[in-house]
Amino acid sequence: MGPMDDQQQRSGWAANGPAGRIATPFDSSITGNNQVLPARLVRIQHLACLPLWETQLRSEKKSNHTIRSYMSTARRFSATVIPGEEEVDIEEISITEMHDRCNPNNGRLDLFIQAIANLRPATINARIAAVSHLFRYIGHRIPDWVHRPTASRPLPRTLTREEVMRVRKAAQDSENPLAHPIITLLLDTGMRVSELCALETGTIDLADRSARVYGG
Fold first, then answer.
1. Exposed (0-12), middle (13-18) or buried (19+): which is 49, by Cβ within 10 Å?
2. Which of 96, 103, 120, 130 has the smallest C-beta neighbourhood within 10 Å, fewest atoms?
3. Is residue 6 a contact partner of residue 12, using CB atoms and an 8 Å limit?
4. pTM of structure
5. Across 60-64, 81-85, 135-139, least confident range
């Protein structure tokens, strides 16, 4: 390999030879991105992928809700058709075929991410989490360019006047003698439960009907 070939290798372009032509990007065999099936899947690579992946999810003690969500997302992703492809029976896709469909460089992931871009951040993150798990199972990983939006925290909801009255009434009718003063203190002051629990007798003035709260 001469100086020019060395420069081409460092610049990220293929050498003028069997692996490529000058000014042609490296193929996967040169860049090292030609991921292969994990060894644990080689012997079963011709079996349907989704049922095996579902078994893996159950072995990880995922909840039934999570499994349903992950399976639904995996089917949506797998059914995403890229140009030049024909629709296939998702349930019958083998592990080898799923490995090819999950290749992050074939454009399917791009189309899937674009399709969910208008959903709520929490939903987007849930869909990405499902696809990420499938990718890891099949021997790929989600690229760094996939953006996981930050879910905004909802503002706390205040009680209506009617709700406050019902809470006070329930506290007054409670058999626990501490219920009424505790609920009254929380509602009238806006004190946090942790601050209430941290109160000491020395910080409460019964004559003045006041209390000193620290670290609130």
1. buried
2. 120
3. no
4. 0.58
5. 81-85
